[in-house]
Amino acid sequence: MGNLTAxxxxxxxxxxxxxxxxxxxxxxxxxxxxxxxxWLYRYRTNGKLRDMGxxxxxxxxxxxxxxxxxxxxxxxxxxxxxxxxxKRLREEAEAEKRxxxxxxxxxxxxxxxxxxxxxxxxxxxxHASQWTNTLSTYAFPLIGDLPPNQITTEHVLxxxxxxxxxxxxTASRVRNRIxxxxxxxxxxxxREGENPARWRGHLDKLFPKRSxxxxxxxxxxxPWQEAPSFMEKxxxxxxxxxxxxxxxxxxxxxxxxxxxxTWDEVNLQEGVWxxxxxxxxxxxxxxxxxxxxxRSLLEGLHRIDDSxxxxxxxxxxxxxxxxxxxxxxxxxxxxHITVHGxxxxxxxxxxxxxxxxxxxCEQALAHTLESSVESAYRRGDMFEKRRRLMEDWAxxxx
Length: 398
Fold this sequence. Notes:
- The structure is a single chain.
- By secondary structure, this protein is of the alpha+beta class.
- It has three domains: 6-95, Integrase, DNA-binding domain (Double Stranded RNA Binding Domain); 107-213, Orthogonal Bundle (DNA polymerase, domain 1); 224-397, hpI Integrase, Chain A, CATH 1.10.443.
- Helix content is 48%, strand content 11%.
- It contains 17 helices and seven strands.
- The strands form two sheets. A four-stranded antiparallel β-sheet has the order 1-2-3-4. Strands 5-6-7 form a three-stranded antiparallel β-sheet.
- Helix 5 (127-143) crosses helix 6 (153-160) and helix 5 (127-143) packs across helix 7 (168-187).
- It starts with 5 loop residues before the first helix and ends with a helix.
């Protein structure tokens, strides 16, 4: 039985005289001021006297304090320092809390945060959706729920092995994107050590180079000898998609470059259509000569006041769908070829039926073949030579 009682404690605390009151067996009530009191257990270990707080009064009652003191006393008798044990348990609890927090931060959440933080700096607005789509398709199902610090080379291999030889270009992009996300995770302290998705000196020892497994995709093209008769059929139709396809063939541009064309890019007076760098595959602006045939086509287009596009789509503020020209080919019974294939048709015609230099023909297709050294010396874009080439192409198609 202890020295203190509940009534005695109420009086002592109310009185508030600063003093230690001994309940016996190492349990003390420490009063600091009126209404302020707490419990402590005093014990000796290795010759040192130590005080262990048990909580404030009245939240901790006399009975609660005695029960705690009994538990601490038993622990001390086993040779374990109660204060050291309390510190150890608290550190374990904090470590477990940190681990739980880290487990809630997954590769997927870090990847989505990375995409959000980077997309303002990406020139192509579709880049963010491409990142999200490829990671959602190939990476998230296998490693999306894992914390970044738990992802190993084995995990990365599980993602890449099924697609490395089937779709090498996509696989290479997935690998690179996983590497960048894990680098970002390391930068914010979510993982340590080497990046398991690193190519040089790591995965290059486990996979063949992309160039060794890549297959060149040839877009089915119309033979150049059949191009004039095709154009004759095309000009007999008058929908926007037919005119968009005609412009694509006359300009030798890509589908997206034509469908995304806006009126402020076109200068009929100077005879040039300038495609800005953010809309070009190579990221460099491209000047397209406006030939006589292309001028007639542009002048015949119906311009919609509230749309900037040459070929507005059904949805306000958007151009024609990417599928519009492909469907036009299908309706014309030319579903065995592709729109992109007309670039090959042009290139074959130029090589086999003209004397125009190869560099001029490649420049007309906005191809980048020269080295960085050659680029430094070649500042022009051979515009006038390309104008003559494109006039010859338009005349051939008549």
